[in-house]
Specification:
Blueprint (H helix, E strand, L loop, with lengths): L4 E2 L2 E2 L1 H15 L3 E3 L5 E3 L4 H18 L6 H15 L9 E5 L6 E4 L3 E5 L9 H16 L2 H23 L2 H41 L6 H12 L14 H24 L8
Parallel strand pairs: 5-7
Antiparallel strand pairs: 1-2, 3-4, 6-7
Amino acid sequence: MRVVYLSGRRSGPVLWFAAFSAIAVLTTGCATSPLGRSQLKFRSDDEMAQLGTAAFQQTAEKTPVTADGRATVYVTCVANAITRELPGGTAWEVKVFESKEVNAFALPGGKIGVYTGLLKVAQGQDQLAAVLGHEVSHVLAGHSNERVSQQDATDFTLQLASLVVGGGVVGDTAMAALGLGAQYGILLPFSRVQESEADLLGLDLMSKAGFDPQQAVQLWQNMASVGGDKPPEFASTHPSDATRIQQIQARLPMDLPQYAQAKASGKRPKCA
């Protein structure tokens, strides 16, 4: 944003215009998550798909794909069972990367990546399904779009605040405090909300696909045992392992009947 000065002072009309512009930006792109939470989403699905595809290609260029064909078949089997439960019937591209990192990801554009290090912690197909259900749910809920949009809105708001606060030592200090407040008061809590949302949506997905949702609890117990030093929850983009386990356990009464129904309908994945 370009700041306009008239006669050495900020123009009143300019500030009023900036204020109305901020309101317009923050009220545009409102959406609702699958769990009914209000979201701020400015980017189109096509734009996010392009960004996701580019990020996936960059990861493939930097991290080698595993030569273990059995691991690829296994992960693809679980991923396909999960993504078949999504609307639209889009085929997802799955790659297994050779890395000790205990992680996985899903990106807009139908991309799934799993690091071989995860396979030592996610023991069995049900625990791997809990991870992939979680990651795919980030895409299903538009969390990438939401995070980009939140950052855009935060940057825009801070630029507006700089018009009011002004420069100098006092102004710089105030802006630094505003920036810190945005990080810990807005962006990180939103990120933790998204992670919890993906946990619950992922639990729904794995249950509908015929995977045992109770194994999600064991997964996060495994994660807690290998997690090492972690920042306090208020300063983290993720909920604590204990918080995640509590939230999952609270949702199990809803998902266990779905799991039973999936098995009764013949959904019994056998991804060895």
